[in-house]
Model the fold of this input.
Amino acid sequence: MKISRREFLGRSLKIGLALAIPTILTRKARANSVEYKPGKLEIYSMVSDHDIGGDLHRTIHYEGRTEGFDRGKDQIYSASWGTYTKKTKIVSIIPKYKLIQDARPLESFTPISLELSLHSQSGSGISVTDLENKLHLSFPLASEGWDFGVKPITLWRRFLAEPDKLQFLADIREVIAEQGGIGIVPLPNLNGEYGSQVPYDFLQVRFDVYPGNLNFSLDSDGKILDGIVDIKDLAYIGNDWGKKGEPKEFLGDITGEQGLPDGNVDGFDLELLVRHWLKDIRDIMPSP
Done:
């Protein structure tokens, strides 16, 4: 899909005006009638070495759960080795616990902070060379209505030294839909020596950011500021329009044919932003 910058601006303004009025008029009604649905997201961490087993993390939203540790509902990480002596490890972090199953309330919008590492049964370091590294994402109970309802679901890289910084990796709904039910998100290849259970990457699943919301920051508690998709976000795509490079090199690169940032800022990115035009996350969040 190729259009010039002038055509981009004209099309964006027409679409924005067309969507603005009905969105504003229905906002109050939506805020008063949100029905939360249960959801189950599975993220499988795997590498391309057949001697290293994979690991599965589950995020669940359901009635009667809490943001803290729920005995019998949350599941603490415990390595299952089988025929492997080395494996990947993906856990979410809550106070005092590292979980492979993280259950939250039905109305939860709290981010799920994930740590990725390699784990050896002996506890010794693991040496690898240019090892392909990826995540498989799915909604295993989507056919039963477990799809998190109206909540957006996005995947980000976080940086411990810069807690207010996030790097967009994928719209989880988009990547699963575009890839036929199991979305594959590539991560940087692993190369070198890795300490057993020492995190090499820090990710986050968020339910409080619409895809296309590029102009936001986090408060001291990690909550989203400026949670609306508007002209400020459109400006980022306009600034990067037509640029080509590595995936995620440009802020405006948010999707592509496979539902992933593809190194091209084009009509795919504009369409995803427009799909969420003027949506404000506060419209679907519980009242303070």
Confidence is low (pLDDT under 50) at residues 20-29. The radius of gyration is 20 Å. DSSP finds four helices and 14 strands in the chain.
